[in-house]
């Protein structure tokens, strides 16, 4: 193998010494549909492919000139250091491969195009190189397409959101309208109406108004989350806080809440109030699923590089197919008759804001379990 390597080095050196290597390289890159040029150790261009002839200038105007003269923009600072200097120092002197993404350049007709740039040493052997290869990829159309797709996705999301909001608000408004019409007929009619029916109908109207207020409140919380106040917190204190908030409601629903706090739990960089809100929503969802009472377990433990906060109930579990389960964090998706479909969405958004992940599954012993995985260490500390 050593003899083969030495033979290859000798062969490459012989090609270079005869000037044949440059012609071989030029033949190789000529028909590649990328902008490619090769410079010697002084930065002088000696290979200029057909794609660059069409995009920049004829070959005879580029060969023999320093690449800075052809690409004057390479002398300008971009993201800290001029690209031309990086090629001369990092590639030609140090033998490194360098890349630069989304580099803006002006074309001959005055347009601004965006390119991905890459430069790497032209190896002669393991210790020597005879210049640099520079590759320029025009990504302008790709960026335009990505921007169009992003705008289309935003428009589609807004349309979906508007339809969902309209659907959620329409139902209580229809109920309010019908019950108010019924009250109007009773009051303006000649026949007496039992007081109990009037009171019951008024209670229905009040309940629907409260439902509208809940939808608007939850939607505003989802769409305009408060600015984060990050600090290193013991997850146990967040669990205890959320448990206190729901203690009375759990008691009235016949639900017993217990906590499982692992002694090796890590500290996490979180917004305490926001994380407590996410836990509150998950716990409330579990309590509501156990209409006949049950047990709710809230805990925290360390799982590798994550802190796992979990909420487990003894309710009926998560029904439906895998596709239906995947939708449970969607905005306004709810299986409850009086649910707004925002509780789990808000919890999921809060967890994502913490660079974490919310996972839902059915527990082997019955019921559902929701797990919040939060990164610990530097990953969490970098959260904005």
Helicity level: 40-55%
Mean pLDDT: 78
Order of helices and strands: HHEEHHHEEHEEEHHEHEEHEEHHEEH
End-to-end Cα distance, whole Å, is 53 Å
Number of strands: 14
Biggest sheet architecture = 5 strands, antiparallel
- Please identify the structural class as seen in this structure: alpha+beta
Lateral strand order in the biggest sheet: 2-1-7-6-5
Given as residue ranges, the uncertain stretches (5+ residues, pLDDT < 50) are 378-384
Shape: elongated
Describe, in short, the structure shown.
With 384 residues, this protein is of the alpha+beta class.
Q: What secondary-structure arrangement, pairings included, does this model have?
A:
Elements: H1 2-17, H2 20-29, E1 35-39, E2 45-48, H3 50-55, H4 59-62, H5 67-70, E3 77-78, E4 81-82, H6 83-93, E5 98-106, E6 112-123, E7 129-138, H7 140-188, H8 195-223, E8 230-233, H9 235-252, E9 255-261, E10 268-271, H10 272-289, E11 294-303, E12 306-313, H11 322-326, H12 343-353, E13 357-362, E14 368-375, H13 378-381
Parallel strand pairs: 9-11
Antiparallel strand pairs: 1-2, 1-7, 3-4, 5-6, 6-7, 8-10, 11-12, 12-14, 13-14
Helix pairs in contact: 7-8, 9-10, 10-12
Describe this structure in words.
The chain is an alpha+beta fold and 384 residues long. The chain is built from 13 helices and 14 strands. The strands form four sheets. A five-stranded antiparallel sheet has the order 2-1-7-6-5, with helices on both faces. It has a five-stranded mixed sheet with strand order 9-11-12-14-13. Strand 13 and strand 14 form a beta hairpin. The longest helix is centred in the middle third of the chain and has 49 residues. The two termini are 53 Å apart.
């Amino acid at each position: 193998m050593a003899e083969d390597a030495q033979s290859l080095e000798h062969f490459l050196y012989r090609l270079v010494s005869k000037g044949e290597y440059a012609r071989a390289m030029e033949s190789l890159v000529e028909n590649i549909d990328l902008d490619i040029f090769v410079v010697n150790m002084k930065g002088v261009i000696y290979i200029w492919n057909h794609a660059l002839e069409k995009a920049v200038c004829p070959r005879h105007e580029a060969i023999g000139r320093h690449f800075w003269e052809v690409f004057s923009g390479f002398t300008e600072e971009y993201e800290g250091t001029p690209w031309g200097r990086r090629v001369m120092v990092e590639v030609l002197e140090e033998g490194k491969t360098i890349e630069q993404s989304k580099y803006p350049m002006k074309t001959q007709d005055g347009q601004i195009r965006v390119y991905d740039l890459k430069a790497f040493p032209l190896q002669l052997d393991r210790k020597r190189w005879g210049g640099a290869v520079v590759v320029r990829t025009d990504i302008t159309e790709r960026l335009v397409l990505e921007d169009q797709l992003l705008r289309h996705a935003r428009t589609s999301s807004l349309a979906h959101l508007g339809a969902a909001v309209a659907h959620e608000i329409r139902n209580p408004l229809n109920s309010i309208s019908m019950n108010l019409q019924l009250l109007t007929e009773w009051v303006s009619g000649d026949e007496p109406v039992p007081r109990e029916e009037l009171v019951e109908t008024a209670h229905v109207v009040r309940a629907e108004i409260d439902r509208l207020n809940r939808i608007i409140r939850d939607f505003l919380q989802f769409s305009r989350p408060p600015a984060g106040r990050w600090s290193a917190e013991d997850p146990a204190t967040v669990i205890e806080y959320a448990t206190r908030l729901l203690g009375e409601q759990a008691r009235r629903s016949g639900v017993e809440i217990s906590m499982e706090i692992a002694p090796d739990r890590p500290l996490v960089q979180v917004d305490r109030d926001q994380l407590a809100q996410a836990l509150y929503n998950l716990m409330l969802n579990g309590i509501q699923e156990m209409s006949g009472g049950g047990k709710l377990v809230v805990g925290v433990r360390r799982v590798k590089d994550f802190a796992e906060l979990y909420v487990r109930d003894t309710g009926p579990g998560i029904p439906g197919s895998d596709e239906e389960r995947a939708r449970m964090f969607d905005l306004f998706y709810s299986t409850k008759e009086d649910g707004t479909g925002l509780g789990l969405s808000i919890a999921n958004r809060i967890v994502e804001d913490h660079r974490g992940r919310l996972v839902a599954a059915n527990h082997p012993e019955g019921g559902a379990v929701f797990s919040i995985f939060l990164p610990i260490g530097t990953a969490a500390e970098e959260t904005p």
